[in-house]
Amino acid sequence: MDSSQTTASAATGGVPAGGNVMMTRQSNDASPVESSATTAGTAGTPMDDQKQNLTEVINSIQKTLGVLHQLSLTVSSFNVASQLPLLQRILVDDGKNPDEFTRDMLNGCIAKNQITKGKADAFKSMRRHLLEELEQAFPDEVDAYREIRAASAAESKRFAQAQSMLPNGDVKVKTEI
């Protein structure tokens, strides 16, 4: 090495000018490997080179772990609810209108609600029919049953009013202006 290369090498931290350099982030706190590398002895021995390589690998791993942590935070904060449903995205990819999909889904929900309402009405009708037949066979017991049901309904209504609940179980919302 001539004198100009020696001066440039000293200015760049021991790396000849024009050489490839891999920069690593160094922290103020030394890791156990770094502290043992600085106290081990003279520089330039194969053991010191291995420790320096190990330090660079550790720093690279720590940097990668930091990036992975930031990525996991980004992924966990991703709001899936704001995205289009999977079926809608597939329809859009296929060139179909997502409004048709929405209309079909709403119509399907309406049909299922009508089926459920029909089942509930059928159970009410069956209950009414059973009470009529029971009243013909056991009039005293049916009267006692109706008194118990009326008392229970009145108690539930008082409790709902005390809890500011509506008779259907919903809670009243106070609007603040």
TrEMBL record:
Pfam families assigned to the protein according to its UniProt record, in alphabetical order: Med10
Region of interest (Disordered), residue spans: 1-49
Superkingdom of the organism of origin: Eukaryota
Biased composition (Polar residues): 1-10, 23-36
Entry similarity comment: Belongs to the Mediator complex subunit 10 family.
Record's subunit section: Component of the Mediator complex.
PANTHER family the UniProt entry points to: MEDIATOR OF RNA POLYMERASE II TRANSCRIPTION SUBUNIT 10, MEDIATOR OF RNA POLYMERASE II TRANSCRIPTION SUBUNIT 10A-RELATED
Cited function: Component of the Mediator complex, a coactivator involved in the regulated transcription of nearly all RNA polymerase II-dependent genes. Mediator functions as a bridge to convey information from gene-specific regulatory proteins to the basal RNA polymerase II transcription machinery. Mediator is recruited to promoters by direct interactions with regulatory proteins and serves as a scaffold for the assembly of a functional preinitiation complex with RNA polymerase II and the general transcription factors.
Protein name (Swiss-Prot/TrEMBL): Mediator of RNA polymerase II transcription subunit 10
Name of the coding gene: MED10
